Every structure is written in structure tokens, then in C-alpha cells.
Amino acid sequence: MVDKILIVEDDANAGLLLQNFLASEGYEVKLAVNIKAGLQAFLGDAYNMCILDCSLPDGDGFSLAKEIRHRNEHVPIIFLTARSLLDDKIRGFQSGADDYITKPFETFELLYKIKAILRRSQVQITGTKDSCFNIGGYHFDPKNQTLSIGNSVKRITAKENEILKLLCLKKNQITKKEEILIALWGESDYFKGRSLDVFIAKLRKYFANDSSVKIENVHSVGFILSDGVISG
Asked: Do the beta carbons of residue 116 and residue 186 sit within 8 Å?
């Protein structure tokens, strides 16, 4: 299924360039030039993300973001704007934004931010945010960040929780290292890759009481979580 993105940008040239770039990356993109048209477009279709400018001819993007967030608490919102003052950034996040990017910007940096935010939001939209998982003799509750076996309950860190959740969603399949890094850190580089390796090592120790549970390292590719039980 193709992800749909709504862009609300009053600069026609900038809006068209961004629309064409994202379309070339496989997204379905709708461009609106003001708040009225943007809200009308949002109400008329289901979007996976909204990219808003702060300064629009019929008001500011903050009010539009609040209206969108009021109608849909899950859809990700990114502000893409020339307004770089700290007060504007604070207003952006207070109005419900997931990220705030100032112009000028690198298009591929924006692309990877979009990919990261969409991955995180997809976990929530599909209901897996609150779903529990059985891993061998363990019970994993992402909502409460707990991993339990028998009467033993361990509360894991937020980052460990998100990594384990991604592994569970692809149990018995390869979860690419790059996917995890972009989803949780927003970018993939050597140092964040080393940090991920440390978290994986900690998770392996947590499963020490059940030898059937394994987190296999697929060299230069990613990881496979397995427990001898075929999922699906």
C-alpha cells in the first residue's frame, strides 16, 4: 500500500519540487496552498503524514496542526518552514508536531526522517503499540515495558522496549539493522550501529532462562528473533 502525504505549502515552486521529489520516491502526494485547502484535503482522504509550513496566507500552520491533531491523534506531522526561532519550534511541537525542520534543508535528510516517523507511526496505527508477545517462555508487554517469565518480571528501558518490539513484529524473519537505526535514531551510521549492538547484547542476556530464544546476528544485514515456534 502506498503511503499518502499531504503537503500544505504556499510557495508553489517549493511545494511542487517537494511533491515531485516525494512522488519519485514512491509516495502519493497531495499539495495544498493554504489552510482552507489543506484542511479540506485532509478531511477528504486518509493520509499517512502531513507536512506543513508555518506561514500560510490565511493563517499559521500551528492552528492547522492543532485542527488536524484534534481530528486524528495518530497521523504524523512535520513542520517544514523558514521560521527558525526557538519560540516557533516550541509552538510547533506544542501544536502536535512530530518534527520541525527549518529551511533550507537537504531533501534526502527529510526523506529519511519521513521514513523513520512513518515506521514508528505504523506500529501505533496497526495496534501493535499495545499488543503483547509470547517469546518462548517469556511474556513481553510493550505498553508497560515488561519482560516476564514465571514470577520474575523485569522492566526494560524505552529503547530496549522499542528494539524488542520491532524484532517481535518480524519474528523468525530478518529485521534489517538499517531499519531499526532509522526507526529509533532517525539515521544509520557506525556509532549508532555500535549502540544498537550493545542493546542487542543486553536483550540476549534477558532471555538467558530460556535457551530456545535466540537473537541471531545476520552479518552486515540485521537480526532474527526466534524461539522455535513458527509465527504467522
From this structure: yes
